[in-house]
Amino acid sequence: MDRNLPPNGVTELLRRITELEARVASLEANLPILKERHPVEQLLAQRGQVVLSYNNYDDVILPLVVSEEILKEYYDLLKHYSFRLFLRDLISHKTGRDWRVISKYCSVPTLCSYMTFLQKAGLVEFSRESFEYRYLGKNVRSFGPTLEWHVHEVLKREFLAPTVFGVKLKNTPHGGDYDVISVFHGSLVYVEVKSSPPRGVELPNVEAFLNRLEDINPNIAVFLVDTELRMKDKIVKLFEEITRREAKRLVRELFYMENGLYLINAQKGIVSNLRLCFQHFFKIGGRTL
């Protein structure tokens, strides 16, 4: 300490040290709270929402042999529509005498490559000689949670956005789970994921989705149907009937309904379709719902 400091200078220095110590103690006390809060949870809390839970893996099909290499290969395979259809069929027909007929959407060589990977991942056992097979993964009722997990991984890996899936909120007016929620530049992004084809989506599903938008008021909302079929024939008509607004085609089967609401399918890939939505939203200035 400088001996030339006047007495009042020493007092001021000691006061500042005491003040800094108090600030450090306050930060240390709050650090666990800050660490525990996911960025999506923080943004939802700032909007008055209480998050009860998220990222429930109970019904998500994941490799039983865990390694970064296998998980990355699994993620990349899930980008392919044919692999997703194959997995849906596999969990519906868990054992059989001929793995070559599991899915009608793949060639036999493609099916063999899928089965070979799943065997490496610990999810199936199969024979190339007798063609018998057995699924070894979780006994799940639906492919939906796995698709939600995949979309959540897409937002994290491809768009570097903090993301959660299977979100439950406390006391929202309309209730229900929120499939995938993410944060982009402080904007709240909500993706509703439908693993069934358009014929499985009815008016109540669309109404429930629109009600959930009222609950959390996202900046960007995406209604994603995992299909390569046309959206215009049914899905777009349902939205136009309820909202009394016209959907505008962006490209192919991607539609925009103003105020950050997008209707998309999986044709040309989920990643590229989401990218087109985000590019469009930020290009037009990003208006909230």
Question: Which key terms come to mind for this protein?
Answer:
single chain; 289 residues; Trna Endonuclease, Chain: A, domain 1; Arc Repressor Mutant, subunit A; 2 domains; eight-stranded mixed β-sheet; three-stranded antiparallel β-sheet; 44% helix; globular; Restrct_endonuc-II-like; coiled coil
Strands across the major sheet, in which order? 1-5-6-7-8-11-10-9
Arithmetic mean of pLDDT: 89
Form type: globular
Portion of residues in helices? 40-55%
Separate helix tally: 9
What structural category arises from helix and sheet content?
alpha+beta
Please describe what this structure looks like.
The N and C termini lie far apart (59 Å). The protein has 9 helices and 11 strands. It has 2 domains: 51-56 and 142-283, 3-Layer(aba) Sandwich (Trna Endonuclease, Chain: A, domain 1), CATH 3.40.1350.10; 68-135, Arc Repressor Mutant, subunit A. It is an alpha+beta fold and 289 residues long. The relative contact order is 0.10. The strands form 2 sheets. It has an 8-stranded mixed β-sheet with strand order 1-5-6-7-8-11-10-9, with helices on both faces. Strands 2-4-3 form a 3-stranded antiparallel β-sheet. 44% of the residues lie in helices and 18% in strands. The model has no long low-confidence stretch (mean pLDDT 89). Strand 7 (187-194), helix 7 (203-216) and strand 8 form a beta-alpha-beta unit. InterPro entries: Restrct_endonuc-II-like (IPR011335). Residues 10-37 form a coiled coil. Keywords: Coiled coil.
